[in-house]
Specification:
Elements (H helix, E strand, L loop, with lengths): L5 H21 L4 E2 H9 L8 H13 L3 E8 L2 E9 L1 H28 L5
Antiparallel strand pairs: 1-3, 2-3
Helix pairs in contact: 1-4, 2-3
Length: 118
């Protein structure tokens, strides 16, 4: 049987959903990259580094999912804030619908199995 080590499994799951988690966080309002990182780190399994988040935000910007604006900060350097575009709102809404169906299907399988492993 071919199975990923548990930490490899978590990495693969994270890679598949992190973009949409970031988009969902931006639904609440504009955020800067460091803020997104802190929020993700606060969610347990969604650990992410600066080396991952900034290229991801840049790609989402090129794809038209987010817009940016620079804002001055008191006593510090200006920060780039990211906010959802209409395309980003549509993408996160569509992902949410698919995710809920997918999650429910997986939950049903594990409930039917009664938690047994083979």
């Amino acid at each position: 049987m071919l199975a990923l080590p548990i930490d490899g499994l978590a990495t693969q799951l994270r890679k598949g959903v992190i973009e949409y988690c970031v988009l969902a966080m931006l639904k609440e309002g504009p955020r800067y990259g460091g803020e997104v990182i802190e929020l993700l780190r606060g969610r347990g399994q969604l650990l992410i580094s600066e080396g991952t988040i900034y290229p991801l935000l840049s790609r989402m910007r090129s794809e038209g999912l987010v817009d940016t604006e620079w804002r001055d900060t008191p006593g510090g350097a200006p920060r780039r804030y990211y906010r959802l575009t209409r395309s980003g709102q549509k993408a996160v809404s569509e992902f949410r619908d698919e995710w809920l169906k997918f999650r429910d299907s997986v939950d049903d399988i594990f409930r039917a199995d009664g938690g047994k492993t083979r």
